[in-house]
Automatic annotation (TrEMBL):
Gene3D superfamilies: 1.10.530.10, Bacterial muramidases (1.25.20.10), Lytic transglycosylase, superhelical linker domain (1.10.1240.20). PROSITE patterns: TPR (PS50005), TRANSGLYCOSYLASE (PS00922). The keyword Signal applies. This is Lytic transglycosylase domain-containing protein. Residues 1-24 form the signal peptide. It comes from Mesosutterella porci. Residues 521-623 form the Transglycosylase SLT domain. Residues 440-496 form the Lytic transglycosylase superhelical linker domain. Belongs to the transglycosylase Slt family. Keywords: Signal, TPR repeat. It holds the Pfam family SLT_L. It comes from the Bacteria.
Length: 685
């Protein structure tokens, strides 16, 4: 019997042990917690339920050991047999079965017996998250191999992951190969894909061209904008009339190609401008303006190029040039060759914001897709544009609905109209102990709790969210209350966030555990406690032992090197190696906030951006300023999406915590935090 056979036998043993007919002793892990455990020996009062740590069972340890052995590729057959005996009736044992199937299929996708067993497992456990995960992972194995019939069996039952960009693209590839779908729909998928430098994007491009070879250049234009130059070059070589030397010149030196080609055909000219625009959009704009008389572009072609160049210039912070380029693009009408048109449309708005061109802001919002226009951020800026141009009644009509929202833009709308933040507007939804008790018995919730005590946070979150599918408002409130009782702060916050604004519960959405301690540390570090809480809520959702892929750890997600530097810089006695300890982490995180706050003269936008992206990035972005800029606008212009969203969320959190901690001083808090960003050397007093 080979290693794979023993692995599958182990899976069979676990399946049998977990069946209703199994007579084994009940698992020690199946305990339904009703309240948080006793406070650990870290000095926190028992009321600080969010900082609790659940003790692990021997089955938990066996499961963790299996995972570690699997990652290391060090599980001998006898080890698997031993784990099978230890994990009988363990509620997480199905994960091990699924992982064994995944490993076996990955090792030998042509093994039809293993595949059939995996499909049977998925069928028998339909409705459980573990099979959603297994089906997704196996689909990603079979799709690149062209196994359409297998892919469909795995893809069809998916509930959550059908819209994953890669799976959706592979589904479209197979539809095109079967004579279904259309090249136009496939190009729309390419245009909206989060990345074009992927196997699935290249496969979809090939499928489009097999169906419609005349789409070669539009597809190549998309790939160029998405920086998949290898595939774009291959298409140009295979489908265009250019010689191999011309293709080489076009992709290796697009400006030289334009200079050396007196009258390029329109497609190669467009490709050259796009390629040049990736590195130097200003030079590309000059090339487009000096288009040879023998080259003729349609209005749609010009819209593609000017929108792309405006987008690239705006990302570089050259908003004057961006506005000029965008003004030469007549519209943002659907253009199948423009990559990520929504992102381009957003930067069209931002370039006008940067120049205080409020009329341009309004025009740019009107050119967005209707779905994007409905986004509350762009609703705010549309209302703001009308406010700034003297149409305050029209602005109020747009902004008033936003004021009900407990969001960043909802608070900005309140600030503009000089209104208080909404706070709790209705009593807690009517939930009973029976409502809460239902979640205590939910298999996915039980698995989520077990995964959480194993510190498998992502898996725990997915199981919890899987349980919430289709839950109504009362059920969501009950689930959030249960999370509060058992100390799952992240699930409490995320679950209550699914409630409507009318049933906002700040004690669940914006908790303040260890308030006296946090307030003391913040005071010693000379930073606002609301800011500290705002960072913790965004960074870790109050999970003290969570760590990131980059190595950041604990409540405030500090890198060990940053913690060590901070401790030395400020003479803090806390041990920087003990970042899982809440007190240590909050102390060092608060002092690092102090460093950033001092470095940027109290300008919270720059300091908060520096906490996420590093202070050097904030220095670079600030260096673009030639005059003071409203912090609300500056935050909107941060070129990194992650950091831009981070700043909004942290400062929005901070304003909400300020409302909770000092309700008499909450009006206008967010706008005050955003403040005005001064150029370097012209710091605010």
């Amino acid at each position: 019997m080979n290693f794979k056979d023993i692995g599958l036998l182990f899976s069979a043993c676990l399946l049998a042990a977990s069946s209703p007919s199994a007579q084994s002793a009940p698992s020690e892990a199946v305990r339904f917690p009703q309240t948080a455990p006793a406070s650990p020996a870290s000095g926190f009062p028992s009321a600080d339920f969010l900082f609790q740590a659940y003790p692990r069972t021997t089955q938990d340890d066996a499961f963790a050991a299996f995972m570690a052995g699997r990652r290391a590729g060090a599980l001998a057959p006898e080890d698997k047999a031993s784990y099978a005996a230890q994990l009988q009736n363990y509620p997480l044992s199905d994960y091990i079965v699924a992982w064994n199937f995944y490993d076996a299929v990955k090792a030998d996708p042509a093994d039809e017996i293993t595949l059939e067993q995996a499909l049977a497992f998925i069928q028998d456990h339909r409705g459980e998250y573990v099979t959603e995960r297994l089906g997704t992972d196996l689909a990603r194995i079979y799709a690149p191999k062209g196994r359409f019939e297998v892919f469909q069996k795995l893809y069809a039952p998916l509930q959550w992951n059908k819209e994953e960009p890669d799976l959706k693209a592979w589904s479209e590839v197979f539809r095109l190969e079967q004579g279904e779908g259309s090249a136009g729909e496939a190009c729309e998928l390419l245009a909206a894909a989060p990345s074009l430098r992927s196997d699935y994007s290249s496969a979809l491009a090939d499928a489009v061209l097999q169906r419609s070879p005349d789409q070669a250049w539009p597809v190549a234009f998309l790939l160029i904008q998405g920086r998949n130059l290898t595939k774009a070059r291959q298409i140009a070589s295979s489908y265009s009339q250019l010689s191999p030397g011309a293709v080489s010149s076009l992709f290796s030196n697009p400006s030289g190609f334009l200079e050396g080609t007196p009258a390029p055909d329109k497609d190669s000219f467009i490709a050259a401008v796009l390629l040049e625009g990736l590195k130097d959009p200003d030079a590309a704009a000059e090339s487009l303006s000096a288009m040879p008389s023998g080259t003729s572009l349609s209005a749609q072609d010009l819209d593609l190029l000017w929108n792309f160049l405006g987008y690239r210039q705006a990302l570089n912070g050259d908003f004057d040039s961006a506005r000029l380029s965008f003004s030469k693009a007549a519209s943002m009408k659907p253009n199948s060759a423009l990559y990520q048109p929504d992102a381009v449309a957003e930067w069209r708005v931002r370039s006008s914001l940067a120049l205080k061109d409020w009329g341009g802001v309004e025009r740019a919002v009107s050119l967005m897709s209707s779905s994007r226009q409905r986004d509350e951020g762009w609703q705010y800026w549309l209302g703001r544009a009308r406010w700034e141009t003297g149409r305050k009644a029209e602005a109020a009509n747009i902004l008033t609905p936003l004021m009900k929202k407990h969001s960043y833009y909802g608070k900005l709308a309140c600030d503009l109209l000089n209104q208080d933040y909404p706070g709790e507007s209705l009593p807690k939804p009517g939930i009973s102990e029976a409502d809460v008790g239902q979640w205590m018995q939910n298999p996915s919730i039980i698995r989520a709790i077990m995964l959480r005590r194993l510190r498998l946070y992502s898996m725990a979150s997915r199981e919890w969210n899987w349980a919430l599918r289709g839950a109504n408002q009362r059920q969501l409130a009950a689930a959030a209350e249960y999370a509060r009782r058992i100390g799952l702060a992240d699930r409490m916050i995320n679950t209550v966030g699914k409630l409507s604004d009318e049933t906002f519960l700040s004690q669940l959405s914006f908790p303040t555990p260890s308030l006296a301690m946090v307030s003391r540390i913040a005071s010693e570090a000379q930073v606002p406690a609301a800011w500290v809480y705002g960072v913790i809520r965004q960074e870790s959702r109050f999970m003290p032992a969570v760590s990131s892929g980059a190595g950041a750890r604990g409540l405030m997600q500090l890198l060990p090197a940053t913690a060590k530097w901070t401790a030395k810089q400020y003479g803090v006695s806390s041990d920087p190696a003990n970042l899982d300890d809440p007190a240590t982490n909050i102390t060092l995180g608060s002092y690092y906030l102090k460093f950033l706050n001092d470095k940027f003269s109290g300008q919270k936008v720059l300091a908060t951006a520096g906490y996420n992206a590093g202070p050097g990035r904030s220095v670079t972005w600030r260096a673009r300023l030639s005059a003071p800029m409203e912090g609300t606008v500056f935050a909107e212009l941060i070129p990194f999406r992650e950091t831009r969203d981070y700043v909004k969320k942290v400062l929005g959190n901070t304003a909400e915590y300020q409302r909770i901690l000092e309700p008499s001083q909450s009006r206008g808090t967010l706008s005050g935090l955003l403040g005005t960003i001064s150029p370097a050397g012209a710091e605010q007093p």
